[in-house]
């Protein structure tokens, strides 16, 4: 069962339970998937679906930061609830230590020696960690590793 099928099933269940927030978030995720399929002119595979869900989650995280700066706690709570729903459909997020370990492995494989090799490391590492770690965290871990070498 793909993530898209799980989301459709969860949407049907949310409609039966009259859970408006869950319905809204799941409908938006499905619409984003459909838009991505139209843009790419092909059906999304599991990685593509996870990428869309991760993008939606990233938008929620950015909104939470903005609303916190604007002191809008009501909107922060709403965005956090939506983010929690989206995170149910993403793989478990990696810890900082796991990200650093994966980055070390890639650094040793390609023989990266310093900050100038960051692009090479990131291009190899991000496909491995897609959906499992946020890009900002991976970027920070790689920068930390390469600056100490």
Describe the structure.
This protein has 149 residues and is an all-alpha fold. The protein folds into two domains: 3-87, Uncharacterised protein YqeY/AIM41, N-terminal domain (Hypothetical Protein Yqey, Chain: A, domain1, Orthogonal Bundle); 96-147, Orthogonal Bundle (Arc Repressor Mutant, subunit A). Helix content is 77%, strand content 0%. It is built from seven helices and no strands. The protein has helices at 3-17, 20-40, 46-69, 73-87, 96-110, 118-129, 135-147. Helix 1 packs antiparallel against helix 2, helix 2 packs across helix 4 (73-87) and helix 5 (96-110) crosses helix 6 (118-129). The chain is globular. The chain starts with a helix and ends with a helix. The mean pLDDT is 88.
Quick one: CATH superfamily of the largest domain?
Uncharacterised protein YqeY/AIM41, N-terminal domain
> What helical percentage do the residues reach?
over 70%
Gyration radius from CA atoms, angstroms: 18 Å
Beta strand count: 0
Task: Provide a short characterization of the protein structure.
The protein is built from 7 helices and no strands. The chain has helices spanning about 5-15, 20-40, 45-70, 75-85, 95-110, 120-130, 135-145. Helices cover about 75% and strands about 0% of the residues.
Which keywords apply here?
Arc Repressor Mutant, subunit A, about 150 residues, 7 helices, 2 domains, single chain, Hypothetical Protein Yqey, Chain: A, domain1, about 75% helix, mainly alpha
